[in-house]
């Protein structure tokens, strides 16, 4: 059996009881930190909390060399852990398919996702989000300005009145995380197809899942001049907020009323 366990968003206490039980019953436990990470806990914290030994796997160790994981799942019960939900933003469908091809039974134990947290904390309704995108560090996408994958997603969502969740690049092995102010600065310095992003409304969500998350709304240019503390950060570009969403952005995120639609 290979069980995929989502660890939730922040620390060793963010996991569900079902996930904790799966780890406790496992013969082997693996974890990766390259797609996301728990800012409030280390792998050692997880080992102490669950009284297990956890083998870290890097990207190559999951995507190119999955044999130790698959062999452990053939011989007993193996658990593969990721931050968030293991099959949403941190998708590992390929590993699950490889297991299925070898006749290994699999199951998924879900964790809280960044998408759900962003919607809940901002008051922007989940069904009014369009496709999400990831903003990479400039040196890693090899293009001038913002990647088309980012600008096209934002523009297409805006044309439909939908919100865009922008994931921010992380290099966990280097302890390097893009901050929301850096992301806002990159957007503010790049013209969109229709408007200057700097004048548009943006919402920062920092440390979702922690005891003290931060939610702040302002123009993209204004957000670029603020600091939001420790990672992980998310950036949301609202589409056309309806009245309830506008009230939530003003009340919970401090959005300036002049940036919101009349209610």
Features:
alpha/beta; 19% strand; 5-stranded mixed sheet; 11 helices; 2 domains; Methyltransferase, Cobalt-precorrin-4 Transmethylase, Domain 2; Cobalt-precorrin-4 Transmethylase, domain 1
Task: Give a structural overview.
The protein has 263 residues and is an alpha/beta fold. The protein has 2 domains: 2-109, Tetrapyrrole methylase, N-terminal domain (Cobalt-precorrin-4 Transmethylase, domain 1), CATH 3.40.1010.10; 114-259, Methyltransferase, Cobalt-precorrin-4 Transmethylase, Domain 2, CATH 3.30.950. It is built from 11 helices and 12 strands. It has helices at 17-25, 43-50, 59-63, 67-75, 93-101, 114-122, 138-141, 148-159, 180-188, 220-224, 243-253; strands spanning 2-6, 28-31, 54-56, 78-82, 106-109, 133-135, 164-168, 170-171, 176-177, 201-206, 214-219, 233-237. The strands form 3 sheets. The chain has a 5-stranded parallel sheet with strand order 3-2-4-1-5, sandwiched between helices. The chain has a 5-stranded mixed sheet with strand order 6-7-12-10-11, sandwiched between helices. Strand 8 (170-171) and strand 9 form a beta hairpin. The longest helix has 12 residues, at 148-159. It is elongated and about 60 Å long.
């Amino acid at each position: 059996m290979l069980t995929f366990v989502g660890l939730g968003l922040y620390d060793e206490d963010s996991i569900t009881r079902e996930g904790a039980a799966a780890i406790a019953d496992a013969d082997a436990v693996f974890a990766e930190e390259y797609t996301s990470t728990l800012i409030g806990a280390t792998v050692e914290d997880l080992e102490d909390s669950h009284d297990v030994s956890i083998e870290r796997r890097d990207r190559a160790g999951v995507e190119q060399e999955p044999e130790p994981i698959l062999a452990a799942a053939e011989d007993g019960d193996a658990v593969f852990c990721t931050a968030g939900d293991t099959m949403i933003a941190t998708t590992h469908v390929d590993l699950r398919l490889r297991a299925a091809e070898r006749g290994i039974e699999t199951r998924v134990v879900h964790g809280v996702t960044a998408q759900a947290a962003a919607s809940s904390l901002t008051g922007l309704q989940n069904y009014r989000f369009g496709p999400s995108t990831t903003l990479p560090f400039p040196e890693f996408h090899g293009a001038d300005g913002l990647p088309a994958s980012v600008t096209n997603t934002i523009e297409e969502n805006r044309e439909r009145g939908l919100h865009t969740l922008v994931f921010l690049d992380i290099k966990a092995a280097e302890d390097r995380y893009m901050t929301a102010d850096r992301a806002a600065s990159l957007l503010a310095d790049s013209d969109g197809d229709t408007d200057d992003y700097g004048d548009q409304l943006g919402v920062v969500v920092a440390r979702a899942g922690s005891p003290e998350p931060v939610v702040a709304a302002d123009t993209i240019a204004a957000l670029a001049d603020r600091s939001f503390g420790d990672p992980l950060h998310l950036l949301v570009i609202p589409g056309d907020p309806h009245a309830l969403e506008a009230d939530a952005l003003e009340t919970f995120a401090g959005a300036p009323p002049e940036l919101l639609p009349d209610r």
